[in-house]
Amino acid sequence: MSPVQIPPTPPNGLNGHVQPLTAPVSSINSLSFSTRALHIGSEPSLSASNGVVPELSLSTTYQQSKVGQHRGYEYSRSDNPTRRALERQLASLEGNADRLLEENLVAEGLNEGWEAGSAAVAFASGSAATATVISGLASRGGHIVSVGDVYGGTSRYMLKVAQELQGTTTSFVDLSYQLDQARQVLKGETEEQKREQDERDDEELSERLEGAIREDTKVIWVETPTNPMLSLVPIALIARVAKKHGIPLVVDNTFSNPYYQNPLTLGASVVVHSATKYLGGHSDVLGGVIVTPIPSLLSRFRFLQNANGNVPSPFDCWLLIRSLKTLTIRSREHGLNALRVARWLQEVGVPAGLVRDVRYPGLKRAIESKGERRERELAWEQLSAEAKKWIVKQGFSAESEGGFPSGGMVSFHILSEEEGSQTNSAAAERFLEGLELFALAESLGGVESLAELPLKMTHGGVAPERRAQLGINGELIRLSVGIEDGDDLVADVERSLRAAIEL
Ligand code: PLP
């Protein structure tokens, strides 16, 4: 018998294509992340056969007993039992968003007759989720403030679709602490000096954001960690500025994942994911999700999901449900392995003259610049409570020598003959093509390790000036560290690096 007793979804006799909140949220939210991942959405009581796995419901239409009377489903684009199960599971994992939604509904007096369902809305891809948020919030000439180092497909949508077709404009702003002066190494700072400096940096960052906000700004869009430089932006700080101006803060949480980071609990209004990455986790399903506990936004996204019809197939939903059940254990292994690779690069690769500028949010270097210290502290602050509990149990702290696990992505610059080369990627290509375990491929977040050259692959379509500004050159390599044996991964990186450099 399931340890979690959740009553079945009551049939919705209203418009049918949307569902009421489907479970007594208060009884669920006390369970931990990994338990929720397994049970929410997969309650046997919700399945006609009491199966412990949700049914794969392929029917596109549902019989009505009388005109307008049905058991909650009319047509599969509008709502589908497998997708509904996935959405409940996703809402539970991303910051316990159904609980936050329920609180907001009660506060706004909307809980009776609420029709827009769970706080998560599933899409056919991350790009479809992104398009829905941008067109839903900032069309008809609205303005977006976006973090500069944003995913190339997102900036493409902002500039080539929203701007050209909907008159939406975007300002790209650096919202990280990695500013020029933040790179200097400060010695012998007292705690008080550190705190004062941090406050000044926070103020400076807020002013930069305030300076970009206009009367017509409809969305603030951030990613953290960013792609491919893995810079961090302070979600809580940005959320405070966003709130002051009444603008929704949207966080694309794809490069982290809900196990490591819950932007909603840090004050964000909306979270977006490419579920193709860590949520799917096996490089075999495309998907996207929007999560928001704000009723008015949720209704709008739910409406657009049905109106635009860019929904995931029931089978893709079913695969995602299955994948999410192992998100906790996959994320932990990704984090431990990525930390090992980052540490090897920093502790062996840098002194050996093989690489420079190793980027991993939780990495602690023996000598840190101010920006690096700030980012490491932020990586710790922005960890979800669940991840932090596990990381501490493993014996790590914010100040651990070498750092702490903080996700599965690592990037670095290989040292080529021509240091800092904008275009010469010969050494990087030798390294990438010499790897045996890391597959040379775009994408990330799967159980198998991947490596790529952003200059010519994921970021090939970004304007050269912008790439140069962001440090994306012929030497930059991005790794998605999988869950193979950590020793094997380090050995693969070492062998291929030495072969690429020491010709
Ligand atoms: N957001 C980020 C950060 C991504 O990396 C990607 C894809 O790489 C997307 C959104 C788009 O997701 P999809 O490829 O599932 O459309």
TrEMBL record:
GO biological process: cysteine biosynthetic process via cystathionine; transsulfuration
Gene3D superfamilies, per database record: Aspartate Aminotransferase, domain 1, Type I PLP-dependent aspartate aminotransferase-like (Major domain)
Pathway(s): Amino-acid biosynthesis; L-cysteine biosynthesis; L-cysteine from L-homocysteine and L-serine: step 2/2
Regions of compositional bias (Basic and acidic residues) in chain numbering: 186-198
Pfam families cross-referenced by the UniProt entry: Cys_Met_Meta_PP (PF01053)
EC number(s) recorded for this UniProt protein: 4.4.1.1
Cofactor(s) named in the record: pyridoxal 5'-phosphate
Keyword tags: Amino-acid biosynthesis, Cysteine biosynthesis, Pyridoxal phosphate, Transferase
GO molecular function, one term: cystathionine gamma-lyase activity
Keyword RNA-binding in annotation: no
Protein's UniProt keywords contain Transferase: yes
Residue numbers spanned by region Disordered: 186-209
GO cellular component, one term: cytoplasm
Annotated family: Belongs to the trans-sulfuration enzymes family.
Protein name: cystathionine gamma-lyase
Organism: Leucosporidium creatinivorum
